[in-house]
Amino acid sequence: MKLIAEKRTLRRQWQASRCPRQKADLNRLALKVRRALEDHAKTSWETTVDDVTTDWVRLHRLCRSINGQRDPVRPLNVHLETWNVFFSEQFDIVV
Superkingdom, according to UniProt (predicted)? Predict the structure, then answer.
């Protein structure tokens, strides 16, 4: 967070002055921030995968979250014999 705050400050200074030396410093700092964020994302992903590999339920949840798909909602819950949809949609299914 300190690097990001420093980058924002430097960008404001550069926008006010348009000095080429400050722009070079800003670009250098932006590269540092990008690399730091990439390293953080990499280590975060590695720890997530390490935590998940021992448990199938966690692995399944991780795959679902990456894939972005939800389980389908079936219109009729067979075990409870109840509807899983809104009342207006029940009418369309019955008719």
Answer: Eukaryota
- Give the C-alpha separation, 70 to 84, whole Å: 15
DSSP the chain: -HHHHHHHHHHHHHHHH--HHHHHHHHHHHHHHHHHHHHHHHHHHHHHHHHHTT-HHHHHHHHHHHHTPPPP--SEETTTTEE-S-HHHHHHHH-
Amino acid occupying residue 31: L
Neighbouring CB atoms inside 10 A of 46's CB total 10
